[in-house]
């Protein structure tokens, strides 16, 4: 019994470390210099890890009915075989499409083993088409992802809260306005 518990504990630590390594590119994994609160839901379906799944920050107020809202996430396949993200569903939009950076429909995304797939702004990502209701920053919605091998997983996904900067003059590269100018 003790050997089995030790093996389970080691496996749990290994999974935690693996998840940390997958996320290291964005979160610093506890690195005090890079600490921040990354958006998103994290999950696992079969060997596929899902990280930072979130609806993009509304640009000028909430997403309104009829809007298309970008949905971003990272995928990492710990399995032995390539999987594919086939699509997604939600009750808050007419459809969810996998699109290229320019918004044109693309179709399924390969998720090779041991490779981080970043579905995010400026790259292939998902798009919630024709929202059926208003979604404000901070709201949660359910989205189901469908994979060819791993199956389906339902996530409670957060709409990223808008970030406002009250005084950006202290940010690197910015200078205060000169008096009288």
TrEMBL record:
Secretion signal span: 1-26
Keywords per UniProt: Signal
Record carries keyword Lyase: no
Record Gene3D superfamilies: PCu(A)C copper chaperone
Keyword Signal belongs to the record: yes
InterPro entries: LpqE-like, Lxx211020-like, PCuAC_sf
PANTHER family, alphabetized: BLR7088 PROTEIN, COPPER CHAPERONE PCU(A)C
Protein name: Copper chaperone PCu(A)C
